[in-house]
Amino acid sequence: TMEWFTKSMEEKQPVPCTDHLRLKPAQAAVPVSTEKMTLPKHECQRITRLKHHNHRFTTALEVLEEHAGYLQVGQKTDSRARAFRRAACSLKALPHPLTNVEEARTLPHVGTHSLSVIQDILEDGYSQEVQDISDGDFYGTMQLFTGIFGVGSATARKWYERGFRTLDDIRNDSTLSLKKDQTIGLELYQDLNTPVTLAEADIIQEMVRAEVQKLLPGATVVLTGGFRRGKTKGHDVDLLISHPTEGKETGLLSAVLAKLREKDLLAYETTSANTYDPSSVSRKEYTLDHFERCFSIFKLDKSLISSNQNTKQAPPSPVGAVQQGSSRPDLLHHKDKVSLERAGGTASFLDEEKTEEKTWIGRRVDLIIAPASQYAYALVGWTGSKHFNRSLRLYADNEMNMKLTNHVLYDSVKNQYLPASSEEDVFLHLQLPYREPAERNC
Ligand code: DCT
Ligand code: MG
After folding, report:
1. Residue 406 to residues 42, 139, 438, Cα–Cα distance (Å)
2. pTM of the entire predicted model
3. Helix or strand (DSSP H, E) at 410
4. Which of 108, 231, 252, 431 is deepest in the core (most CB within 10 A)?
């Protein structure tokens, strides 16, 4: 989550309103059968579940998306990456397995490059292009390096271009001055690249909830992100904290962190203040949101994790960590898979003694504080998926002349903010059928 906060968002800015006619959202009906149907243009108008009929195509397209993202470091737009993502999203929403390229041609946002990959998979069962990329040195190294907490594509690529290929290459180079988060990212590489299970997320949520409610009775702590969308594995735990009475949440985060620190539960933390200012949402600082938040690494005691999760007994081998992961590749954070494989030769960095001593596993936890009046928008935003959010914002802008953020929805026609007290309200304002979190997995 760290990376995207620092990156500026490149969403299209709202255009001045010239058309006062509200466009009706395109047919948002749920596809029911194998009958020919037309997918709505915007992903947020469709139902997209984790499980769908076209994984063999979407897995390949996601490799291309990720690879395109690695290549476009420093460029303003990640339009190539986005194109692959949008093609994959259309296939995910298809209510049946795709069997011919002609149908793919009729789907929204499936461009020529994606089409050719789909065609290869239909004809040969795989795509040579995707195979070559995922076998390649560049892709694998970028996955390895961006798997380090605190390392984004730009840094990873710089290192790749300097000839670094393994974690030890990074560790042993004295000319690199690693930032604090990167240092801990290297130290806890294996922990942080072992997917967080839902059971672990629940434990952490309970730990935080207990502290929060002791400090501020009535306050709420909700597990958002991928877990709220039904994933059983994730790369972090996203906790949204609020209180029904506006203003009561002030000061809560630092008090909670003090308690967690007292109990020695934090291996790393970095807090940013609430910078939300409705009057100055300038283009420059158009980051995802401005909530008070803390990116942290929790020390989760291994004794708290049930033995069937295998973590306690597992030797600290990356291979073991992969096996712990989901047998459903789509439920595993994409970075988790390959990074662990490639880190295989580098496990030696964990010297044996240290590994034996460590009684906890490091887990990435994001704590976000939302005031009551912004809570519904924060919940939608932090539930995601990232691409669902993008789609919602684009839809709001293009079809409704509204500006959606994680804080508010602004109606550019009526020139007013639209208050919402639930996620349903948000969808209602946008004239979209409500989608359960599990249906927002695009
Ligand atoms: N988010 C977003 N835009 C981004 C990144 C994230 O809107 N560029 C939102 C959507 C999900 C939420 O924040 C939490 O982000 P992550 O933890 O990165 O995603 P996730 O869906 O929870 O995935 P994971 O299971 O890997 O944690
Ligand atoms: Mg998450």
Report:
1. 19, 32, 19
2. 0.83
3. strand 409-411
4. 231
Quick one: 313 exposed, middle or buried, by C-beta within 10 A (0-12, 13-18, 19+)?
exposed
DSSP state of 298: E
- The predicted-structure confidence for 382-433, as pLDDT tens digits, reads as follows 999 999 999 999 999 999 999 999 999 999 999 999 999 999 999 999 999 9
Q: Is 347:190 a contact under the CB 8 Å cutoff?
A: yes
Q: How far is the CA of 1 from the centre of ligand 1 (A)?
A: 6
The Å distance, Cα 236 to ligand 2 centre, comes to 5
Of all helices (H) and strands (E), which one includes residue 185?
helix 180-187
Q: DSSP letter at 288?
A: S
Question: Would you tell me the crossing angle of helices 153-161 and 55-71 to the nearest 10 degrees?
Answer: 70
pLDDT of residue 336: 46
372 close to 244: Cβ distance less than 8 angstroms: yes
Measured CA to CA, the distance from residue 374 to residue 302 in angstroms comes to 36
Q: Which ligand has the nearest atom to the CA of 389?
A: 1
Only one residue has tokens 């059983």, namely: 232
Residues contacting ligand 1 via CB (< 6 Å): 1, 4, 225-226, 231, 234-236, 238, 288, 333, 381-382, 384-386, 389
The percent of residues above 90 in pLDDT, for the chain, comes to 74
Which residues are CB-contacts of 151 (< 8 A; sequence separation ≥ 6)? 145, 182, 185
Strand arrangement, sheet containing 409-411: 402-404, 409-411, 416-417
Read off the pLDDT of residues 244-285 as tens digits, 9 standing for 90 and up: 999 999 999 999 999 999 999 999 999 998 888 766 544 434
423 φ, ψ (degrees, to nearest 5): -60, -35
Neighbours of ion ligand 2 (CB under 5 A): 225-226, 234, 236, 238
Identify the segments of the chain with pLDDT beneath 50: 1-33, 281-286, 310-339, 341, 344-353
Residue in the structure block whose two tokens are 């020529």? 112
